[in-house]
Design a protein that fits this description.
4 copies of one chain form a homotetramer. Chain A has helices at about 10-25, 50-55, 70-95, 105-115, 135-145, 155-160, 175-185, 190-195, 225-240, 255-265, 280-290, 300-310, 335-345, 360-370, and strands spanning about 1-10, 30-35, 60-65, 95-100, 120-125, 145-150, 200, 210-215, 245, 275, 295, 310-315, 330. The first copy, chain A, is an alpha/beta fold. Chain A has 2 domains: about 1-175 and about 360-370, 3-Layer(aba) Sandwich (Rossmann fold), CATH 3.40.50.2000; about 185-345, Glycogen Phosphorylase B (Rossmann fold), CATH 3.40.50.2000. In chain A, the strands form 2 sheets. A 7-stranded mixed beta sheet of chain A has the order 7-10-9-8-11-12-13. Chain A has a 6-stranded parallel beta sheet with strand order 3-2-1-4-5-6, sandwiched between helices. Chain A is globular. Chains A and B meet through α3, α4 and α5 of A and α3, α4 and α5 of B.
Chain lengths: ~375, ~375, ~375, ~375
Amino acid sequence: MRKICIVIGSRANYSSIKSAMVSIQKHPDLQLQVIVVASALLDRYGSVVDLVEKDGFVPAAKVYMLIEGETPATMAKSTGLGLVELPTIFEQLRPDFVLTVGDRFETMATTLAAAYMNIPLAHTMGGEVSGTIDESIRHAATKFAHVHFPACTEARDRIIRMGERPEDVYLVGCPRIDLVAEILQQDRTDLGPHLFAEGVGESLDLDRPFVMISQHPVTTEYGEGERQVTATLQAVQDVGLPAVVFWPNADAGSEDIARGIRKFRERHKDFPMHFFKNLPMDIYICLMAKTSCLVGNSSSAVREGAYIGTPAVNVGSRQYMRQRGRNVIDIGYERDAIGDAIREQLRREPYESDPIYGDGHAGERIAATLSDCEVRIQKRITY
Amino acid sequence: MRKICIVIGSRANYSSIKSAMVSIQKHPDLQLQVIVVASALLDRYGSVVDLVEKDGFVPAAKVYMLIEGETPATMAKSTGLGLVELPTIFEQLRPDFVLTVGDRFETMATTLAAAYMNIPLAHTMGGEVSGTIDESIRHAATKFAHVHFPACTEARDRIIRMGERPEDVYLVGCPRIDLVAEILQQDRTDLGPHLFAEGVGESLDLDRPFVMISQHPVTTEYGEGERQVTATLQAVQDVGLPAVVFWPNADAGSEDIARGIRKFRERHKDFPMHFFKNLPMDIYICLMAKTSCLVGNSSSAVREGAYIGTPAVNVGSRQYMRQRGRNVIDIGYERDAIGDAIREQLRREPYESDPIYGDGHAGERIAATLSDCEVRIQKRITY
Amino acid sequence: MRKICIVIGSRANYSSIKSAMVSIQKHPDLQLQVIVVASALLDRYGSVVDLVEKDGFVPAAKVYMLIEGETPATMAKSTGLGLVELPTIFEQLRPDFVLTVGDRFETMATTLAAAYMNIPLAHTMGGEVSGTIDESIRHAATKFAHVHFPACTEARDRIIRMGERPEDVYLVGCPRIDLVAEILQQDRTDLGPHLFAEGVGESLDLDRPFVMISQHPVTTEYGEGERQVTATLQAVQDVGLPAVVFWPNADAGSEDIARGIRKFRERHKDFPMHFFKNLPMDIYICLMAKTSCLVGNSSSAVREGAYIGTPAVNVGSRQYMRQRGRNVIDIGYERDAIGDAIREQLRREPYESDPIYGDGHAGERIAATLSDCEVRIQKRITY
Amino acid sequence: MRKICIVIGSRANYSSIKSAMVSIQKHPDLQLQVIVVASALLDRYGSVVDLVEKDGFVPAAKVYMLIEGETPATMAKSTGLGLVELPTIFEQLRPDFVLTVGDRFETMATTLAAAYMNIPLAHTMGGEVSGTIDESIRHAATKFAHVHFPACTEARDRIIRMGERPEDVYLVGCPRIDLVAEILQQDRTDLGPHLFAEGVGESLDLDRPFVMISQHPVTTEYGEGERQVTATLQAVQDVGLPAVVFWPNADAGSEDIARGIRKFRERHKDFPMHFFKNLPMDIYICLMAKTSCLVGNSSSAVREGAYIGTPAVNVGSRQYMRQRGRNVIDIGYERDAIGDAIREQLRREPYESDPIYGDGHAGERIAATLSDCEVRIQKRITY
């Protein structure tokens, strides 16, 4: 009976690993341990912990570790705080595996705590390429992990080229796509009225064309966020479609983006927009299936967007070199260029589903692998 | 005028970077900032901070960050504590570069703090291969660093294979060898009397054959340290030469090794041994130039030993795959095999100097590079 | 030349000690050291650090230490984080005195760091009585402090009764009143237009009657904040005067109060209100000199209100037993009773100034005392 | 069923609360929760955690929180680290009461975590008077505690004079005396042979006169420890009785005392001494019942010594103003005066038992009180 410990630090973390959690919890030879930390505990990021509990997972511990400031310095300090506390919890829980998710800054706290404590470490979504500090975090996590669960073939190949043993690398697909597949099978024709009772701003008619905007800070372009998001908002206004706008995540620079959105909103009160902190994954995916265009720099445009076939305009450097399908148009931070790209998407034919990030069974594969893989705790680079 | 910040966390850290510190301090276009942390502040690891100050460096801050316990968990927590505090200091000092050293566990605190804060990060001694968690730490530091200073050609090639840009990799040699070269030029014929007033145990006659023992915990073999060091001590006793014995470093498992040494000492009071916590680098190198054989798992046997030509018996997995010269015999943890290897070294001819880890000018090259290199703060893997 | 170190952790901290900072900086035998921490660094609490710098003080360090969550647990953890970091800074600055302010939760971090490190500790505003955990914090700070600066006679007597030596207790008045006295001497007839460009909500006509609302969480009544503030807002709406509303401070429960305000605002969009995060002290005091009634549980109603003569309705337990003048009517959390109390204040004659909390020279007395007082570092209770 | 949480931070902590733990665990309406932290987890302080587990208590969490350095700064930082971590554990355990012990520096971490989190806090051994920073810590803990368990009448009266409500103050005696009473009822005539197999140094004949030495650092006299303990050791050597010597506790300055002892030992190898890190409480008490004189500044001389009737010479300021019986002679740090005081004790008649610190039933009273007392979570000073 292997104990598998998962640390959830944000909404993105959760939906990136939930299907694996379900499969682990169901697996007869595995026991799931959940720790909820950082922004996943916070009201202003949508209280992800409530979702986790509603989904039937019982957190073994909750660790408040996010230091306010949303600067690069507090991002580092928050990671440090997690690294101070997680070993205490790991010593309580004594997991046989820690499964760490992706490339968020708190990921390093989980990664280092497990690796330093000689607990076998598995890592999802390694080997991908992106902008921001996430790029370094992801590859560093690979260098600590004993078992790798890349989402696509390019990522798998990159992990092996970095010196990991091929027998430790399991191509499983992205667990987020598992959720997407499930949601798309449901019949959801009644989104509107309930939806716009949440958040603030106008109610939109979802049967008519609308744009989605989801733009997050780029940590290596700290201080630029307000200007960047303003260009996107202006471009959407230029195109003239109503917009569903999402507040940014908790990375360094988040406050800049939020300020840009707030100011734009005060200045353009009659432009039809609705603002959400966060939405349940299922509703978000339904919106992606309906929207005329998803604008910004969310990874959902590239990953889920490929599977769903969502027309997307990807702004700036945040998704650079991430493997992508035909549904994405890439563009810089200029208002006019963004506007043109949106209009281009409005003209195109619908996209077909493109399962480059998985076929909907990643979670099952992860659970099966964790139940019987063998681990060499002393890592060695292969060359 | 670039400000170069260096964090010294241990005695090993200090001697691995001291020659670069001297060159940076002398360089007209560079300003040196020194932070002393962790075991480098502690009496029981030889108060390295006093040495640093005596050498003319003025610490801008001192951060106590070592959490007692010497378990894998406290190693993780200590790193976390450093990562909580270093950003505060970096915001005070606003360095243009942080130069991080090697692969000790505290190295990750410096590495993450700088990288998350978008401060250009340079890393020495990357690309090498070893046992213990240091292996993962070193390669992870490579994935965060913007500028690399490997010590030997194999290490350089490995860094590039891991996906770093060749133009960011500077082969400079190991700065420790700079110190070794300098020390060997001095005339030191008078070591004995003063030397054995320090430490505890018998005074040895250094003009007669003697063995040196330096054995540290292997973090991935936690709990084995007492048994491991006892085999080494017994083997030396079997050979019958007097021994200079060093206490272990502060890694997880250190207490096990220390207990093994203490018990052996109580049981064999008439076996001629002398015990040191630490020695000034210059005296240590002189001993390496004089000893009949250096036994244990210290990296000094491989690195400095190659340059000096010290006969060495390397025990166990700690130095696995580290590039080495002819002076080293590798062996497992068995008492008899260790004894045989020591006797084999006693029979051989003297070794010639083998400069695979540098020619004595690494520090100057590091300073020169830091004064004029260009950095891309947004890293990208090259494939 | 004594070095006096002051740690600013919030807006309230700053205005409670600013006049002493000015006097210390001017004093020929004193040198001022300023550390800015916690909510004083944060945008969403009004970036007090910018004010501090604009006022000519140069922070020697900035310590991000507020852990997000605004629960009782994060209040404790934030204090712990401060206590981890402040000793590092104190060792850099080596102050001869640390001057700690009042009774906020971060105050304990400053207090313990100084006391444990044997740095003489002076404490302002001790000996007062209030609700919330501040009550215990204040008296505990008294038990650590070597020099006491109470603001009023009752407080002085209480400090001595708690076992402090009378010769260590200096009645100086409250330094906040120094600022108030200074502001009231200025001619400020032009508040309106610029003022309401800040914050959000309607522009009010300050020449017509208006109410001020300032209500903070009561940490020992955690979870009640939304209900409590809603009763106050409804009562003000019942009375029918327009209102200037302040967002709550960063104590545990702050998010509850903020939610109550946000919901009320969404539901009563046509009720004339204007919302501020924070105002410069001088503008706040001018509003207090103009308002028909200050409602809520801010200590300003009791302290500055006495000196200014502001009609005030004090709601709930937060100011319980604080020495107060005739200007205050105390009331519970019931909507109707609050409304009646406000109407009662509207009917009364103007209040005269009542200097029970000082005569405007507290800061000078503090500086003078710190320059020549003698301290016994080993404290002893007097009975 | 009330959950009572106790945090054990040191050997002294444990023996000061063990009898209450036993009574709480037996009580039908109470559930015991134990957290082991700080030096109680460490090998070099005798692994108190092993004792705790052997005694049948199952720790719910273990928190490594002692930052190495043993300076005043690390004492503060360690407390901060505890205050960062304990809230996480308290949120897991959700105790109805936290019971905090005495006046050690980590005590403040427990005290603040519970008080800030609105968990009712009970405090043992408040109201006493001593030297060092413990004095302030103890009284500050009183100002946070909701229920007080003083050990003697003077302490009870002092707590009430400090402004605590008499109905919250329960005179119960000292729980350490419960253990002493129990131990003295056992027949222990066979101490010697097994005893001196532990520790290092000579075996002493316990049927002949011998001295015990237990001297700890005085935190407000930091840097003096080596000189202080040397005077004591020399005085004992002057008197000429063999000595049982105890290593100091983990307070700031401990390393100074330890160095003094080590140097004395190296210089006087033929003086009959035996050294212990720690001894099981029962053996320590038996030694106190046998020794000719207990010298140093341990509180055991005053508290247990009174009950047992141990002749004691109390050196320096550490036990100043602590209520004491006839068995204690107080003296300064001078070698000759200490020697004279020891000789004076050797001449006196045996002392009778003096139960000023309790009758052996403190633990039962604490458990009974915790099971039915009522608590006002909002504290108010009584005057």
